[in-house]
Design a protein that fits this description.
By secondary structure, this protein is mainly α. About 50% of the residues lie in helices and about 10% in strands. The chain contains eleven helices and eight strands.
Length: about 250
């Protein structure tokens, strides 16, 4: 039922890091200076100790070494999606979204994969063992081709910004998605991509003019499990059977 995922760098790395060490629930109001002194990083109301990123570096560096070796000896052309596929394989943990993407051969695209701790690690690695190349051109061809050659497309977009635009723009290549659901708290008056209503995407040809898109103004972490439970999960057998028939 899921053909493609698009994620930010943070969405990839934090999923992997949580398999190496725990992230803790805190409060939005915790003072940054105090947290900095204790070696704790705040992501909203989540708290991530510095040591988690040290563990991530220890886990990731040998994988980057192996990827570079395969690039040199086997001619492997790495892309962000191929790298995420490899990381999903290496984490080998059912608590990881990207483990299951790997197991089910679902490509995960991340056009700004260097915008986070993963980018930091790639930067460090480029000095320790230089030469690794990630090709974003191959990935944009793959993502857009998924949209262009699909019989129908549907977008379920959680949050906004980079991923929202990247998914919508892929559907622009096919004159618009047939179905679209946006879930975020962005407001249109601030001029952000996150705040843009589906009707704006219709004006660009990213959603078909005859579609009936929906935007849900809510916290995706709370609402998305409910949406899945009442749609995909409830009708999983029928949807799977229809996909096989198609």
């Amino acid at each position: 039922m899921v053909d493609v995922l698009v994620s930010t760098a943070g969405g990839v790395e934090e999923d992997l890091i949580k398999c190496l060490a725990p992230t803790f629930l805190g409060e939005f109001s915790l003072p940054g200076r105090e947290l900095r002194g204790r070696g704790i990083n705040r992501i909203g109301n989540l708290l991530v100790p510095n040591n988690n990123y040290c563990l991530f570096e220890d886990w990731l560096m040998p994988i980057l070494d192996q990827m570079l070796l395969e690039q040199k000896t086997e001619g492997t052309l790495w892309t962000p999606s191929k790298m995420i596929h490899r990381l999903g394989k290496e984490i080998n943990n059912p608590e990881s979204v990207y483990y299951w993407a790997y197991k089910n051969n679902i490509p995960v695209f991340s056009p700004a994969l260097t915008d986070g701790s993963l980018g930091d690690m790639i930067y460090f690695h480029s000095y320790k063992n230089p030469g690794l190349v990630l090709d974003i051109v191959e990935d944009i061809r793959k993502l857009n081709s998924h949209a262009v050659f699909a019989r129908r497309t549907g977008m379920v977009i959680l949050g906004g910004g980079l991923i929202k635009h990247h998914i919508c723009n892929a559907n622009f290549m096919r004159n618009g998605a047939d179905f679209a659901v946006f879930v975020n708290t962005g407001q249109e008056f601030d001029g952000s991509d996150s705040g843009a209503r589906p009707d704006e995407a219709v004006s660009w040809g990213k959603i078909r003019a005859d579609a009936t898109p929906v935007k849900v103004y809510a916290d995706a972490a709370l609402v998305f499990p409910l949406l899945v439970a009442e749609t995909f999960a409830r009708h999983a057998e029928a949807l799977t059977a229809q996909n096989k028939k198609d």
